[in-house]
């Protein structure tokens, strides 16, 4: 039973701490477009000469089919249907008002010839390829300036056959940064659902400079140890919903980014209003949910809830470093279950690389209002590595109702941070030992608070309407 707080006290509390209020509204993106638009026209990839034998290269067939579907963009759009079969292809580019549908048993296979993945310009917020100076290989499925794009199916598969790329990376044979499986740039109204993504050469799904992105019910797999095979990386994007996914990859399951160092700072395109819920998975050499370390355009208003993380190096991490500038602010993470995780919560600033020597070491990141609530963990080595930067304390780090079974002593390793805690076991480190103020709008977003207030109002009204 929730403790009842007199309305007056709530209102007084609001007035006293009214300076800080934050709200996260990402859930509205989750509600829209979940079923996808139905398209009045549909063609099959086989009508364009594609052969699903796993050997024939079908890049031309995909390009021709999509070129043909251009004529339907102002007529409600069209669907490109990929039936069961193994469809080998190089990179191809989507158009607006298109649904790419992969039927049960349909597998799109990425070509193992790097020449089938053309070179595109580096992203302005990175100033160069993420791993090598210069351009980058275009993703297998690519889009630019699009609206209303749906990539879905009946659990069809998009397999990047990434092992050739991982070997080129390991043996230093790459000439350009590795490609993604799906990258959409400057696009809005994107739905990716009901599919399986395997063996991406690099990060699997990369929406960058996008808005209204909904990723729902996808499976993303890459072997442990495969380099940089992040699952989903929303980058300088707003209004993003990621839900009901199973992800097991070599590196981060989901990583929110916004460019790096002087390039990210001057491009100034934040990632904000992001809602992530019901994600299951693990990553042995990385962190399940990551913020940064590329965060120079800023990251804010992020709500994560319902994580089930196992066999991972880190559960949730906030990563940054001097030179990044930018900010990570107003992040609320709740309902997390972890098993077999080395470090449950990490907030740190020691690791990460720079695009070049021209970054400003005095560009310090601003980290503020990060709340971890309702978390449990078993077989955790270290509860938290929470380390800000000397002269740049990370502020308002809140731990609320967090219970971990921890091997390390001391269980928390904290420096240069300030914050609050309540109901934390093992007991939190000294800098966070101050109790979370009652109904603190420093630690809790105001819309959660507001819903409590509504409840109070409701109770008051209920009391009022009680027969005397
Ligand atoms: C995903 O599958 C569900 C269940 O079959 C369906 O209701 C939904 O419309 C599908 N989503 C998309 C975008 O195709
Ligand atoms: C994207 O849209 C902008 C603005 O409409 C336009 O200037 C640019 O040429 C487009 N780029 C591509 C690759 O379509
Ligand atoms: C998830 O996708 C699968 C196909 O990949 C479909 O069978 C299932 O109904 C979908 N579930 C939801 C909740 O949409
Ligand atoms: C989709 O296929 C993948 C890989 O084959 C499988 O792991 C997953 O359980 C399937 N999902 C559904 C909803 O059938
Ligand atoms: C890099 O360039 C060299 C020389 O042109 C070429 O032999 C090699 O195949 C290229 N590597 C990749 C991964 O494309
Ligand atoms: C603490 O979190 C657990 C889930 O981890 C939840 O069941 C419980 O109700 C929470 N307790 C309080 C006091 O909020
Ligand atoms: C805390 O972490 C730092 C950096 O990882 C490490 O050097 C230090 O030894 C740790 N302190 C304790 C008490 O474990």
From TrEMBL:
| InterPro entries hit by this protein | GH28_Enzymes (IPR051801), Glyco_hydro_28 (IPR000743), PbH1 (IPR006626), Pectin_lyas_fold (IPR012334), Pectin_lyase_fold/virulence (IPR011050)
Question: Which processes are annotated in GO (biological process)?
Answer: carbohydrate metabolic process
List the Pfam families.
Glyco_hydro_28
Q: Which UniProt keywords apply?
A: Glycosidase, Hydrolase, Signal
Gene3D superfamilies in alphabetical order: Single-stranded right-handed beta-helix, Pectin lyase-like (2.160.20.10)
Top-level taxon:
Eukaryota
Task: Provide any one GO MF term from the record.
Answer: polygalacturonase activity
Its signal peptide is: 1-23
Q: Which family does it belong to?
A: Belongs to the glycosyl hydrolase 28 family.
Protein name listed in UniProt: Polygalacturonase
């Amino acid at each position: 039973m929730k403790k009842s707080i007199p309305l007056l006290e709530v209102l007084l509390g609001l007035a006293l701490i009214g300076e800080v209020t934050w709200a996260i509204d990402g859930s509205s993106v989750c509600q829209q477009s979940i079923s996808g638009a139905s398209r009045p026209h549909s063609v099959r990839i086989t009508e364009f000469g594609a052969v699903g034998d796993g050997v024939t290269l079908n890049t031309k067939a995909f390009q021709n089919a999509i070129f043909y579907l251009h004529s339907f963009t102002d007529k409600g759009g069209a669907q490109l249907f990929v039936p069961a079969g193994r469809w080998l292809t190089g990179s191809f580019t989507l158009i607006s008002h298109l649904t790419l549908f992969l039927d049960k048993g349909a597998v799109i296979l990425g070509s193992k010839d790097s020449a089938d993945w053309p070179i595109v310009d580096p992203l302005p917020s990175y100033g160069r390829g993420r791993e090598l100076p210069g351009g980058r290989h275009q993703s297998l499925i690519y889009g630019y300036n699009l609206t209303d794009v749906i990539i879905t199916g009946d659990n069809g598969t998009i397999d990047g056959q990434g092992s050739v790329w991982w070997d080129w990376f390991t043996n230093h044979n790459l000439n350009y940064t590795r490609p993604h499986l799906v990258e959409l740039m400057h696009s809005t109204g994107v739905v990716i659902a009901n599919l399986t993504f395997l063996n991406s050469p690099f990060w699997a799904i990369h929406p960058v400079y996008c808005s209204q992105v909904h990723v729902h019910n996808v499976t993303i797999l890459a072997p442990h140890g495969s380099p940089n095979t992040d699952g989903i990386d929303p980058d300088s994007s707003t209004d993003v919903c990621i839900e009901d996914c199973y992800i097991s990859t070599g590196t981060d399951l989901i990583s929110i980014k916004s460019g790096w160092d002087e390039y990210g700072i001057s491009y100034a395109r934040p990632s904000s209003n992001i809602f992530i819920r019901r994600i299951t998975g693990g990553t042995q050499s990385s962190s399940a949910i990551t913020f940064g370390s590329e965060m120079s355009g800023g990251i804010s208003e992020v709500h994560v809830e319902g994580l089930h993380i196992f066999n991972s190096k880190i559960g949730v991490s906030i990563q940054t470093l001097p030179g990044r500038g930018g900010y990570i602010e107003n992040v609320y993470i709740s309902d997390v279950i972890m098993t077999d995780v080395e470090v449950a919560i990490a907030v740190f600033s020691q690791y990460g690389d720079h695009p070049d020597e021209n970054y400003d070491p005095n560009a310090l990141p601003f980290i503020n209002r990060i709340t971890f609530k309702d978390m449990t963990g078993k077989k955790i080595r270290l509860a938290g590595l929470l380390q800000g930067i000397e002269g740049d304390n990370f502020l308002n780090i809140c731990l609320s109702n967090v219970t971990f079974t921890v091997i390390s002593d001391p269980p928390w390793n904290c420096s240069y941070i300030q914050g609050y805690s309540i109901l934390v076991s093992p007991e939190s480190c000294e800098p966070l030992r101050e109790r979370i103020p009652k109904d603190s709008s420093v630690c809790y977003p105001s819309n959660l608070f507001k819903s409590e207030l509504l409840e109070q109002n409701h109770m008051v009204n209920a009391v009022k309407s009680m027969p005397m």
